[in-house]
Amino acid sequence: MRKEDFTGDYMNSSLKINFSGPGEIIRGRNLRKDLNVKLKEIGEKVLVFGPEEVFEKHKTYFKISLSKTKNFTCFFNGECSYREIERVEKFGKKNSVDVIFCFGGGKAIDTGKFVSYLLKKPLIVLQTSSSTCAGYSHHSVIYEENGSFIEEKDTKNPEFLFIDYDILIEEPQNLFRAGVADALSKFYELRNVKGPLAELGIEVSKRIYVKTNAIVLNAMNDLLAKRMSEDVLNIFDISILYPGIVGYLGGKILRAGPAHAFSNAITKFIS
Length: 271
Known about the structure:
By secondary structure, the chain is of the alpha/beta class. It has two domains: 145 residues, Rossmann fold, CATH 3.40.50; 98 residues, no CATH class. 51% of the residues lie in helices and 20% in strands. It contains ten helices and ten strands. The strands form three sheets. It has a six-stranded parallel sheet, sandwiched between helices. α1 packs across α3. The longest helix has 27 residues. The N terminus is likely disordered.
């Protein structure tokens, strides 16, 4: 995990920033063999965790990626709750796993990050949709079993984040649009954030906003046609990486901003 500490004066006060992200981000096409090698390098016994429907959809991909390790599969129950985290943690302990391999949406990845943190084992995340920046971030959002928001906990970043465009090009339009909406929302959320990094965060979010609006319609058409265009790849990167960067700049104040507060409030009604 990379960290840099910056200190300085801001309105006669000390400012310290811990800016972290995944230890390594591996982007490209057809990364199944690269993932296979990385898993084997880190450990022999792998806790494979994520939604069963995603696993079945990409079964051939996972078969190759997991062919050189001893795998213990535990499918996600659907909610990043303390009960689910405890269940998966116990499963990992029982099988004495060396590494956690996680895939799926934001809640599944958040659960995987928390379990990795508790077990003190390395985490590899394969981003299977562009609708979330969970693979980039270092926190987990915790919910009740019924979907009611509880709190956000600092956990950890993945040691390795894999972004395979051949996986992402298969995602449905609704997930693609969700990622775009999340990226665009940062521009509006940051307008209500005050603090030493607000101006920098606003500038970053402006660039995201302008870039996304310029290419998103072309990207959506290309995704429908399963065409791996530069616009599609740029939107994948914007949706997965940049909201996480802006989230660090805004901190918990940003993540408790209007859009996130509204999302947390209605989660149990629409999930």
